[in-house]
Amino acid sequence: MLNKKNKLKIDDVENLESVMSSHNFNIIRNNKPFPFRGVMSIFALIVVGLVMLIIFAENFTNKQINFLGIMGATFISFFAVFYTINKEGRDSYILAKKSAAVLSKILESVDNQISRIENGMLYPVIYPKNWLDYYGNCSFYLEYDYMEYLFREFEIIDKINYCIKKNDKEELLEVIKYRRKILTDWNTDYDILTTRLNLSSFSIGMNEIISWRFQKSYKDFEKFFIENYSDKVKELTMEYLKKNNNSCDVNLALYYVMDKIREDSDLKDGSYKFEVIENKKMVNTIFKVYLSLQEDDLFYLCWGELHLNE
Fold it and tell me: How far apart are CA 164 and CA 81, in angstroms?
């Protein structure tokens, strides 16, 4: 766990709120602009229509020609307005894709620098302080919101740099360990690596990956695990509680059960072996077993702790 000296202070929170409000972030997402080829196709149809009108003008009365001329002029006017508005949207969308690409590269550089620090090179992590501007340029076009993951990552980087500046190697290792735990164990929708991947995907016109918890492979695993291993989870939890004075922090039990249950050959070598090796998927699923405990079970969950029934 991080020391108190590295926690956000009141002034930090106020500054954070100020920055967020100044960038006007919200949950509204802009639609992608109409593609340029589509715009030009509409223009081509209008031109063809006018050319056909000129060619076959002798087949129309003067009133019909006047009416068609007015309609043509109206269509051209509407097209001009549409083109202008759509061009602004396309320019904004192009800027969004470029900004997402830059932010993805920043995150890649940061990750590489942290890897070098882990290998003993104690140089501060260098990154542009205006990274939030890049996210502001693309956030309204992104399918998912990555704000919390970005802020957490750059907060950790500042803590790493603080430790390097103070030559506090012990605290530096704790911060890096904390970051690694977020990547592997925290059951948030995304981690910073997936965020980087999704920003890169958006920048080249590809779809962003949905959260792991909504992917079919995890949903199938969760259903399979709960149906087939709930009793085993309860048995192992009882075993752990009896070793620890009949009560414990739920997180301690989660990791004990996870490590033990992974030894099951049918589970670790079965259809869901890739889900089994991921801590956050296992922890999240085991915790759902705890959330579904009934009155006749031999232990219960209360305020983050497990207790044996007396």
Answer: 56
Binned at pLDDT 50, 70 and 90, residue 173 comes out as very high
Most trustworthy range by pLDDT among 4-8, 19-23, 285-289? 285-289
Predicted TM-score of the model (pTM): 0.76
Q: Which residue has the higher pLDDT, 167 or 90?
A: 167
Q: Which two tokens stand for residue 104?
A: 């993805």
Kind of pairing between the strands at 299-302 and 305-308: antiparallel
Q: Which segment of 72-86, 115-129, 131-145 scores lowest on mean pLDDT?
A: 72-86
Q: How far lies 294's CA from each of 42, 122, 234, 245, 291, in Å? A: 63, 52, 11, 22, 9
**C-beta neighbour count of 214 within 10 angstroms:** 9
pLDDT recorded at residue 71: 65
CA distance 128 to 13: 20
